[in-house]
Amino acid sequence: MAISSYARWMLAQEARSLLTRLRRVRPFVLIEPMVPAAALLPSAQTAIETHLAQGRRGLHGMVMAFLAWLQGPAARNATAAEAQRRFTFVRLKFNAALTQFDLFNDVITQRSEHKNGTWLSGLDVVSADALALPGSYYRAPPVICYLDRGPGAAIRRARTRLPGGGDNPVAIVRVPRERMVGSSIASSLFHEVGHQGAALLDLVNSLRPVLQSMQRGAGGDGGASPAHVWRLWERWISEVVADLWSLARVGVAATMGLIGVVSLPRVFVFRVNPDDPHPAPWIRVKLSCALGEELFPHPQWRRVAALWESFYPLSGLPPEQRRLLLQLEDSLPALAGLLARHRPALLRGRTLPDVMAVRARHPRRLASLFRQWSGAPQQMYDAAPSLAFAVLGQARADGRLSPEHESVLLGRLLTHWALRSTLDLSALCGGAAQYPQYTQSRRTEYRSTIL
């Protein structure tokens, strides 16, 4: 039975209602109040607004095409059920587009919160520094951060599929509220940034064949590293690489922050689940120490590993579970060396520690920098954000920095980085090169507002 005029009229009304609601979806720059220092970096703001504008244009065109079909000769020969099916598809696409808007809205709305908004902007700067690699190995996407409940962080990587279609124009990092503000935030933040960096370098796919070759070459007779151990590391390699990235950027702060996240009841700490992409917490912390020893040889790694073992001794575990954990532990030196010496194709013959200049993060150098900065704090504000986190994290691990003082310093640093990026951009847009006196004095002026 052909569609009735009443059915065509009703579906047209519903389609026009969608257009009305679509017109009320405004760009974030017109609806979100925030101080300039809390704003997104221009690259992130532009990428998000461009993505959403393209989505709105696509939806508008889809609704208009449906209305044109509904008013044309083809609809007169169609049934009401077919017309309803077409409209339902349009409405589902519309709702999916609103889901994308809400995703970014949840992130951006927090920028209006007092202090938190500016600190999040500072974390955007930290994330950009954590992702930056000298040498043009990839084009880093914008990274934006937001706060949420829960003990762990998470990332929605750039260039991955969004609900409703289209690629994510930015990387979105969810930061646990309970980690603001302390150096432990670096462990979570840099781990998630590491997932993005690993994807850009295709590290996981380049490491899987290496781990598979370790499986083929391993003995299955209960030796130090039997094949099933390497199968587990292959299953967990995505999280392992992200931990390596975090460790290479901020040193022992990554390990201490990891301990803070995975300090759970014993049953969870020792649970080995082959279906979980995360290693069992007990072996994950031990691997972090082994990687630290590989990248920056120092007695602290044995101390941290012993501390972790004292918190969670293997005594009392079922024999099979204990045996597997000890086999995994025996494989750590080989795995750490494999990761440190791996040369993925996209790094053009270099290793990840090479391009990340890990020597600058050696514990002795970090401790020396902290002593130097204690006498000349302005140098801390001029340092790269990832280096500042590494230095403060090392000082905290060495007992030279209290949690209270650490929180104050990091709050000031995050504000400083947000303010600096805002003023640097304003100077660039305003042609500050014409005013050398601004270039010479601006850092001193806006640093003095924070100290």
Low-confidence stretches: 432-442
Number of domains: 3
CA-CA gap between termini: 77 Å
Specify the number of helices: 21
Strand order of the largest sheet: 1-3-2
- What is the strand content? under 5%
Category by helix and strand content: mainly alpha
* Mean pLDDT level: 88
Q: Radius of gyration over alpha carbons?
A: 26 Å
- The residue fraction in helices comes out at 55-70%
Topology, number of strands: 3
The backbone outline, from C-alpha atoms, is globular
Order of helices and strands: HHHHHHEEEHHHHHHHHHHHHHHH
**How is the main sheet built?**
3 strands, mixed
Structure, described:
The protein has 451 residues and is mainly alpha-helical. The protein folds into three domains: 5-112; 202-359, no CATH class; 373-448, no CATH class. The chain has 21 helices and three strands. A three-stranded mixed sheet has the order 1-3-2, with helices on both faces. The longest helix has 30 residues, at 42-71. The protein starts with a helix and ends with a helix.
